[in-house]
Amino acid sequence: MLHSVFAAAVRIRYRSPLTSLLDEPSFIGGAQGLTFTYSPSVGLIAVRDVPTPVLDKAMRFRLSAEENSEFLNPLSSRK
Question: CA triplet 75, 70, 24: central angle to 5 degrees?
Answer without folding.
Answer: 130
